[in-house]
Amino acid sequence: MSSRVTRLILAALVAAVLALPAVPAAAQDGMRTGPSGLPLPRFVSLKSDRINLRGGPGQDYQVEWIYNREGLPVEIVAEYDNWRRIRDSEGDEGWVFHSLLSGRRTALITPWIRDKETRAELHRSASNTAKPTAILEPNVLVDVRECDGSWCRVRVQDVEGWIEQERLWGVYPGETIRP
Questions:
Q1: pLDDT in tens, 18-75
Q2: Bridge partner residues of 67 (DSSP)
Q3: Do 73 and 108 meet the contact criterion of CB atoms below 8 Å apart?
Q4: Among 140, 167, 174, which residue's Cα sits nearest to residue 156?
Q5: How far apart are CA 50 and CA 65, in angstroms?
Q6: pTM of the entire structure?
Q7: Are 54 and 66 in contact (CB under 8 A)?
Q8: Which residue in 20, 40, 52, 85 has its CB near the most CB atoms, within 10 A?
Q9: Is 12 left (phi over 0), alpha (psi -120 to 50) or beta?
Q10: Residues 6+ apart with CB under 8 A from 34
Q11: Backbone angles phi, psi at 101, to 5 degrees
């Protein structure tokens, strides 16, 4: 094969590769992404204290539920156009318009525990032997500052500390979140 033909084939291959759409990093890692290019599923929070959860992706669908807690963590499990299918800590699902969601990371303390006597300790450092800074009841809403895969640094009102990651709904097991 002549060098001119080889160069033409090589140029055609380079042009074909450059014409391919960019693959998001999450997809390269084997993670599923939605039309937004962001990973699915993922945690976000509610941007407002009054948000309609609809039965489908559009305003023509019936309102199934109204959330009235700004900052509540929800999990985006699907995307359709500008609509996001979310799941809350109780497992309820429905559709919300994307602009009503925030990338701010929040979590609920052990929402699966119904017994108010069972509490979670917030520690000064990421260790069970560290001095507690607060005792939190189930369903307390916290702002997530960072997670190392086992422990998360959170803030509630004016108190900040570390809590075992497995006690939070709003972060995945083993997930790391950088400050």
A1: 333 433 334 345 579 988 999 999 999 999 999 999 999 999 999 999 999 999 999 9
A2: 51
A3: yes
A4: 140
A5: 10
A6: 0.81
A7: no
A8: 85
A9: alpha
A10: 40, 76, 78, 79
A11: -115, 150
d(CA 100, CA 105): 14
Nearest to 156 by CA among 90, 89, 109, 104: 109
Q: Which two tokens stand for residue 173?
A: 């097991």
Structure tokens that stand for 107 in this block = 């979590």
Q: Which residues pair with 176 in a beta bridge?
A: 148
Which DSSP string do the residues of 136-170 spell out, in sequence order?
E-TT-EEEEEEEESSEEEEEETTEEEEEEGGGEES
Instruction: Quote the CA–CA distance of 153 and 105 in Å, as a whole number.
Output: 12
